[in-house]
Design goal:
The complex is a heterotrimer of chains A (about 500), B (about 120) and C (about 450).
Chain A lengths: L57 H12 L22 H7 L2 H4 L11 H18 L3 E3 L5 H18 L6 E5 L5 H8 L3 E5 L9 H7 L4 E7 L11 H10 L3 E5 L19 E3 L20 E3 L11 E5 L2 E5 L20 H37 L4 E2 L9 E4 L10 H10 L6 E2 L9 E3 L7 H19 L3 H5 L12 H6 L11 H5 L1
Parallel strand pairs in A: 2-3, 2-4, 4-5, 5-6
Antiparallel strand pairs in A: 1-7, 6-7, 8-9, 10-11, 11-13, 12-13
Chain B lengths: L3 E3 L4 E6 L2 E6 L1 H7 L2 E5 L6 E2 L4 E7 L3 E5 L4 E6 L1 H5 L2 H5 L8 E4 L10 E2 H9 L1
Antiparallel strand pairs in B: 1-2, 1-10, 2-3, 3-9, 4-6, 5-8, 6-7, 8-9
Chain C lengths: L7 H11 L29 H13 L22 H7 L2 H4 L11 H18 L3 E2 L6 H16 L3 E4 L5 H11 L5 E4 L18 E7 L11 H9 L3 E6 L11 H4 L3 E5 L15 E5 L12 E5 L5 E5 L6 H4 L12 H37 L6 E2 L7 E5 L4 H10 L6 E2 H4 L9 E5 L6 H15 L1
Parallel strand pairs in C: 2-3, 2-4, 4-5, 5-6
Antiparallel strand pairs in C: 1-7, 6-7, 8-9, 10-11, 11-13, 12-13
Helix pairs in contact in C: 3-11, 5-11, 6-7
Classes of the chains: A alpha/beta (about 500), B alpha+beta (about 120), C alpha/beta (about 450).
Chain lengths: ~500, ~120, ~450
C-alpha cells in the first residue's frame, strides 16, 4: 500500500526519482582533465548538440543505484521457485575468478601467444561440456540459449543443404518454449506443432505420422517443459533419424540430468547448454547469458566460427572456413563467446566435480518431488509423480474460489516469495511451474511448502480478495500493463523537448 | 446486427453493396481482454479469402485476423489505431477494422449468421 | 559439497516422505540404456582454494592488456572503469535477480533499464532504444532484419567499412530469411559510393562510424539518398565513447543504430559478455526486437516501470515473433548505465575528448617513424598505419617484447592480401605518454 509518510518512503524502502530528475548538470562522478583539442582531427564532425545527461557526484550515483537495488527480489535473499529458469546459488568465487586480470582484461584480438590461458579456458570448458553431454563437439560462441538454438538449427540446415536439400519443416511440441518455433522460423523452416499425450509427453504416434523426407529436425526439450522425462525419447530419436532428420534438444532443463544421463546417449544431434541455468552464471536481472551448443559427429563439421584447435602443442583460434572448419556455417557474433561466463561456469564445474555434478541432479529432482509429495493434497498436480527437477501444478484446486493463477502468484509476493512460473507451459490450464533447485535446504523447502499450503487453504476458504488485491506489501502493487502498452513511454524526456513531442 | 455474418475465427463481415466491413466479434474482444494495439493492412492491398489481414493484441496475447472475403482493402479504421480501446467498447460497431471491395458477389454461405454464431460461442 | 545444503539425513527423510526407497526411483522414466551408474570421467569436487589456484594459473598464462603498453581496438576498447561500477553491479539484488517479469518486486531492474534506454537514445541521438541486445554484431544483424520487416524489402547493402564480424553476423543470421546481402569491399582510401547500390528492393544500407579503420564519416547525404529510395540507414558504432565527441547517428539521419556498448562500464573480458545497443525512431518500435521497458502506474497510482510491448516477443508470438531473442545483457547494461551516470554530460565529453587527444598525439608520433604511413582523414581514437611489411609479423615481434601494438588488419580481413601491411592502432584515456614512447621505440627498432 502507498505509505502514509511525507516522503513517500516506507522505513528502509526509499522512493527514488529517475537519474534525469536528480538535481545536477555540471558535476561529474569521474574526475577527468579538460582535454587539449587544439589539434583535433575530427574533420568538422564535432558533436555540437548537448547529450542531455545529468551531472552527478559519485555519492549521488551510488545512492541512486543502491536504492534501486533495494526494490529487487534476488536469489541471495530468498528461494526463486521459477520453473524452467533454474535460479540457483551463485558462488562468489566465480565472480572473483572472472575478474582476474588475465581474464577480465584480455583483449579478444591479442596475439594468440599472449592469451593461451584464455584459450585454455575455452578448451577446458569445452571438454567438460562434451563429457557431460557425451557429444564429440561443442560450439562456444552463442550468447544465450536462444542464440544456441539458432546455432544448432543453422548447423542442421547447413548439413541438409550440403546433402542437396535444406528441407522444409521442423517438428516442435506444443509444450515447447516460444524460442523453439521462433528460431525455426528464423532459419527458414515451417513449424509443425506436435501434440502431447495424456501423460504429458510428446505423442510418439503423432511424431511418426508427421515424418517425411521434408522434415529437417525435431526440437524437443528433455526433461520437457512440464517437468517430465520424455520416456520415449529413444523412439523419437530413432524415428527422426529414420527419415534423415536431426534431433535438436533444448537443453534448458539439463540441471535435472547432469551427471546421470548424457544427451548423446539419447540420440541428440545438437543441444544448447544454458550456462546461466545449469552452471550458475548469474542471471543479472535478465542477462548476459551464454549458450554453448554440443554437436553430434554428423553436425560437428558445420559448427560456427571461431573454433579452438590444438597445433604443435599450442592452442589456436580457427577464424576462417579452412581445415576442420571448411564446412562451418560461419560466424554468429563478434569475437569468441561469453568469456566472462565461461570462467564462472568452469569454476562452478570444477568446484562440484564429477561427484558434485551428479549430486546436483539428484538433489534438484529430490527437492522437486518432495515439494510435489507435500502439496499434492493441497494443490492440483498436473501429472502423476515422479517429476524431474520441476513440479507442475494446474489451477484445478482454485476452481470456484474466484482466485486465478495470477492472483495466487501475486499473493506469494506478500509472503516474501517470488512467484513460480505461471501460465507456462501453455498446454496446461493456469499452469504453475515450480523448480526449487538443489540450492535449498530442507528447512527452506519446508517454508515454501507451508506457505503454499497456507495460501491454498486461504483460497479455498473463500477469501478471494486476499489474492485479487495482492500484492499489498511489495514496493509496488499491480501495474497497469494495458495503459503502458497502449501509450508506450519508453524513455525520459525533458518537458517540451522534441523527443517528448514525438511521444 | 442481423445483417452480419461470422467466421469460426470470430471475425464478422457486413455487406453494403460491394463493400465488406470486417471486424472481430464482441465475443472475441471479450476473450482477448484489453486490446492494446491493432496492426492494420495498407489500403490497396489485395486479399485472398482466408489471408491474414490484421493482428489484434492484448498485453499477453496476439491474434491474427483473417479476411472472410476476397477483395481489395479500400479503407482501414485509423480510429482503432489511435484508440484501440474502441475494439473493446464497440467491437461490432465503431471498432470495425477494415473495408474490402469485393469482386462479384461474395459467397457468405459458409459463414454463420448472428443466431448460429451466438449458439457457437455459447458452447 | 559446500553449495549443496541437503545432508544425507535430509535426503533419506525426504525420500521417506515421497515414499520411494532411493533417488534412482525418481529417474525411472529414463530408459535403462541411457542411465549412467558411475561418475563421468572428470575430476572430483575441489575446495575454493584449489579452484582459485587452478584458475589463477590459467589467468597467469594471459597477458592482461593493461599490464603494459596496449593499443588494441578493432571493436573492443580498453577504458578505465570507476570502482563504484563493479561494486554496484555485484550487489545481490542486481547480480542474482531474475528477468523483471514480476514488476512489483523488480522495480530496481526495471527503472535502471528505463534509464539505460534513455541514455542510449540520448547518446545516439535517436528517439527510443531497447533494453539491450547480446552485443554489437548481433544487434547489427537484428537491425538488418528489422529493416526488412519495416520496408518489406529484401536487400541489405553493407559498407566495406563495417567491422567484418558484424558483416559476418548479418550474413549468417539473415541467410535463411530471404535477405540478399551485398557486401562491399573494404577500401583503405575510404572512397565508397553506396548510393549507387540503392534500388527499389533495398531495405537498408549499413555503415559504421567511426568505421572499422577508425575513419569518421558524415552520413547525412547517404541518409537522404536512402530515404529518397525508400530504404533505411543503419549505423553501427563499435566505439560508443565516440558519441561524446562526434555528431550522433541520429543527427546524420540514421533510422536504426546498432552499437557495441562495451567501452562504457564493461571490461574487455576476451570478447564477452558485452552489451548491444539498439536505437530507432519511435514509429518503428513495433518491429524492434528485444525487451522494452515502459513507464506505467500501479493500482495506487504510483509511477512504476514494466516490460511492455511483449507481443513482439517469442514467448507470446512464437513462430511469428520479431526475433527469437529472449534475453538482454542486463548486468552489462547496468554497468553501462552506472558508468554513464557517473560521467554525466561533462564527463562524457571530456572522456571522448581525452580519447581523441591521445589518438592525435599517438598518430603524430607514429608519423615520424621512417617507413610508417598514417592514414589521412578524420578519426576518433583509432586509425590505420601502413607498414613496409606484414603487420601481423610486426605485432607478434612486439608482443614478444610485451608491447601490444594494435590489431593487424589481416586478423579481421584474412582474405585481403592488400591489407596485409595495415595495422589498426587505438589510443584511449588509459594510454600514457611513456607507453606511446615504448610503442614508437619498439616499432622504430623492428622496422629498421
Amino acid at each position: 500500500m502507498k505509505p502514509d509518510t511525507s516522503t513517500g518512503h516506507k522505513g528502509l524502502e526509499l522512493e527514488e526519482p529517475l537519474l534525469f530528475e536528480l538535481d545536477g548538470r555540471d558535476r561529474s562522478g569521474v574526475d577527468l582533465p579538460e582535454p587539449d583539442l587544439s589539434n583535433n582531427r575530427l574533420g568538422g564532425l564535432e558533436r555540437t548538440a548537448p547529450i542531455g545527461l545529468p551531472g552527478l557526484s559519485e555519492p549521488e550515483v551510488v545512492r541512486h543505484f543502491v536504492r534501486l537495488s533495494q526494490k529487487n527480489y534476488s536469489i541471495d535473499g530468498n528461494l526463486y521457485p521459477l520453473g524452467s529458469c533454474t535460479m540457483k546459488h551463485n558462488p562468489r568465487i566465480n565472480e572473483k575468478i572472472a575478474r582476474m586480470p588475465g581474464f577480465a582484461d584480455a583483449h579478444p584480438l591479442q596475439p594468440e601467444s599472449t592469451v593461451q590461458g584464455a584459450l585454455e579456458v575455452l578448451d577446458t570448458l569445452g571438454h567438460w561440456l562434451k563429457t557431460i553431454t557425451g557429444m564429440p563437439a561443442v560450439a562456444m560462441s552463442p550468447a544465450a540459449g536462444a542464440h544456441g538454438e539458432l546455432c544448432g538449427l543453422m548447423a542442421i540446415r547447413s548439413a541438409h543443404t550440403a546433402n542437396g536439400d535444406p528441407r522444409k519443416r521442423v517438428l516442435v511440441p506444443e509444450s515447447a518454449h516460444g524460442t523453439n518455433p521462433a528460431t525455426a522460423t528464423l532459419c527458414g523452416y515451417k513449424v509443425d506443432p506436435v501434440p502431447g499425450n495424456d501423460r504429458g509427453r510428446i505423442d510418439l504416434s503423432a511424431v511418426k505420422a508427421k515424418l517425411g523426407d521434408d522434415v529437417a529436425a525435431i526440437m524437443l526439450t528433455n526433461p520437457n517443459t512440464l517437468g517430465l522425462f520424455e520416456d520415449e525419447v529413444l523412439e523419437v530419436a530413432e524415428a527422426i533419424h529414420s527419415v534423415g532428420g536431426y534431433f535438436y534438444c533444448d537443453g534448458a532443463n539439463l540441471n535435472a540430468i547432469v551427471g546421470r544421463v548424457r544427451p548423446g546417449d539419447l540420440g541428440v544431434d545438437a543441444m544448447h547448454i544454458n550456462l546461466h541455468k545449469t552452471f550458475s552464471t548469474p542471471h543479472g536481472g535478465g542477462g548476459p547469458g551464454s549458450g554453448p551448443v554440443a554437436f553430434s559427429e554428423a553436425l560437428a563439421p558445420f559448427a560456427p566460427l571461431p573454433q579452438v584447435v590444438t597445433k604443435d602443442g599450442k592452442l589456436h583460434l580457427l577464424e576462417t572456413k579452412t581445415g576442420e572448419a571448411a564446412q562451418s556455417f560461419g560466424r554468429l557474433r563478434s569475437f569468441h563467446g561469453q568469456m566472462g561466463m565461461f570462467t564462472r561456469a568452469l569454476a562452478y564445474m570444477m568446484s562440484h566435480g564429477a561427484d558434485g555434478l551428479r549430486q546436483i541432479a539428484e538433489d534438484a529432482v529430490l527437492s522437486a518431488n518432495y515439494v510435489l509429495s507435500q502439496l499434492q493434497d493441497d494443490m492440483s498436480v498436473a501429472y502423476p509423480a515422479p517429476c524431474m527437477h520441476e513440479v507442475l501444478f494446474d489451477d484445478t484446486f482454485l476452481e470456484g474460489t474466484g482466485v486465478t493463477t495470477l492472483d495466487f502468484a501475486k499473493a506469494m509476493i506478500d509472503e516474501g516469495y517470488h512467484p513460480m512460473t505461471v501460465y507456462f507451459p501453455l498446454v496446461v490450464h493456469g499452469a504453475m511451474l515450480t523448480e526449487p533447485t538443489e540450492s535449498e535446504s530442507k528447512a527452506s523447502l519446508d517454508n515454501l511448502i507451508s506457505t503454499l499450503k497456507y495460501l491454498a487453504d486461504k483460497a479455498k476458504s473463500g477469501d478471494a480478495t486476499h489474492f485479487t488485491e495482492a500484492p499489498r506489501l511489495a514496493p509496488r502493487r499491480r501495474v497497469d500493463e494495458t495503459a503502458a502498452a497502449r501509450n508506450p513511454v519508453l524513455r525520459w524526456a525533458p518537458p517540451s523537448s522534441p523527443a517528448q513531442a514525438a511521444e | 446486427m442481423s445483417d452480419k455474418h461470422y467466421t469460426e475465427d470470430h471475425e464478422w463481415v457486413s455487406m453494403d453493396g460491394d463493400i465488406a466491413t470486417v471486424g472481430i466479434s464482441n465475443y472475441a474482444q471479450d476473450q482477448l481482454g484489453d486490446v492494446v494495439f491493432v496492426e492494420l493492412p495498407d489500403t490497396g492491398a489485395s486479399l485472398e479469402k482466408g489471408a491474414e489481414v490484421a493482428v489484434v493484441e492484448s498485453v499477453k496475447a496476439a491474434s491474427e485476423v483473417y479476411a472472410p472475403v476476397a477483395g481489395d482493402v479500400v479503407e482501414v479504421n485509423d480510429a482503432i489505431g489511435d484508440n484501440p480501446s474502441l475494439v473493446n467498447e464497440d467491437a461490432e460497431g465503431e471498432g470495425w477494422f477494415l473495408k474490402i471491395k469485393v469482386a462479384g458477389a461474395p459467397d457468405l454461405s459458409e459463414l454463420m449468421d448472428a443466431s448460429a454464431y451466438a449458439d457457437e460461442v455459447a458452447d | 559439497m559446500r553449495y549443496l545444503p541437503l545432508s544425507p539425513d535430509d535426503r533419506s527423510q525426504m525420500l521417506g516422505a515421497i515414499g520411494v526407497p532411493s533417488v534412482d526411483d525418481l529417474f525411472k522414466d529414463v530408459p535403462q540404456s541411457a542411465r549412467r551408474d558411475g561418475l563421468l570421467d572428470l575430476p572430483m569436487h575441489q575446495g575454493e582454494l584449489e579452484v582459485e589456484r587452478a584458475m589463477e594459473a590459467m589467468s597467469a598464462r594471459n597477458r592482461p592488456a593493461g599490464a603494459g603498453p596496449s593499443f588494441l581496438g578493432g571493436g573492443a576498447y580498453r577504458h578505465h572503469i570507476p570502482a563504484s561500477v563493479d561494486h554496484l553491479i555485484q550487489r545481490s539484488e542486481f547480480l542474482t535477480s531474475y528477468t523483471p517479469y514480476q514488476p512489483e518486486i523488480s522495480q530496481g531492474t526495471l527503472q535502471f533499464l528505463f534509464e539505460f534506454q534513455t541514455q542510449v537514445a540520448m547518446l545516439t541521438g535517436m528517439e527510443i532504444a531497447n533494453a539491450s541486445m547480446y552485443e554489437g554484431a548481433t544487434a547489427c544483424a537484428e537491425a538488418v532484419m528489422m529493416a526488412g520487416r519495416l520496408t518489406r524489402r529484401h536487400k541489405a547493402v553493407l559498407s566495406g567499412g563495417l567491422h567484418p564480424h558484424y558483416g559476418a553476423a548479418v550474413r549468417t543470421t539473415s541467410q535463411f530469411g530471404a535477405m540478399d546481402v551485398v557486401s562491399k569491399d573494404p577500401t583503405l582510401d575510404g572512397g565508397e559510393d553506396l548510393s549507387a547500390d540503392l534500388d527499389d528492393q533495398t531495405a537498408c544500407v549499413v555503415v559504421q562510424n567511426p568505421d572499422v579503420f577508425g575513419r569518421l564519416h558524415d552520413y547525412s547525404g547517404l541518409a537522404a539518398a536512402c530515404h529518397e529510395a525508400g530504404a533505411l540507414l543503419v549505423v553501427a558504432v563499435t566505439e560508443v565513447v565516440s558519441l561524446g565527441a562526434v555528431k550522433s547517428p541520429g543527427e546524420m539521419g540514421a533510422d536504426i543504430v546498432a552499437a557495441e556498448g562495451q567501452s562504457l562500464g564493461v571490461g574487455l573480458s576476451f570478447g564477452g559478455p558485452y552489451v548491444g545497443l539498439m536505437a530507432a525512431h519511435k514509429k518503428h518500435v513495433r518491429q524492434m526486437p528485444g525487451r522494452l521497458c515502459g513507464e506505467a502506474a500501479d493500482v495506487d497510482g504510483r509511477r512504476s516501470y514494466v516490460l511492455t510491448l511483449s507481443t513482439r516477443e517469442q514467448h507470446i508470438r512464437r513462430e511469428k515473433a520479431t526475433s527469437n531473442i529472449c534475453t538482454n545483457s542486463g548486468l552489462c547494461a547496468l554497468a553501462f548505465g552506472i558508468h554513464v551516470a557517473l560521467l554525466g554530460e561533462v564527463g562524457m565529453r571530456r572522456l571522448a575528448g581525452l580519447n581523441h587527444a591521445a589518438a592525435v598525439d599517438l598518430a603524430g608520433r607514429l608519423e615520424k617513424i621512417p617507413g610508417v604511413t598514417v592514414a589521412d582523414g578524420a578519426f576518433f581514437n583509432e586509425f590505420t598505419v601502413t607498414l613496409p611489411g606484414p603487420a601481423a609479423d610486426v605485432v607478434q615481434t612486439l608482443a614478444d617484447r610485451d608491447i601490444l601494438a594494435g590489431v593487424p588488419a589481416s586478423r579481421l580481413f584474412p582474405d585481403r592480401d592488400e591489407l596485409a601491411n595495415v595495422l589498426l592502432v587505438a589510443a584511449t584515456e588509459t594510454n600514457t605518454s611513456p607507453e606511446m614512447d615504448a610503442l614508437v621505440a619498439g616499432l622504430t627498432e623492428v622496422l629498421s
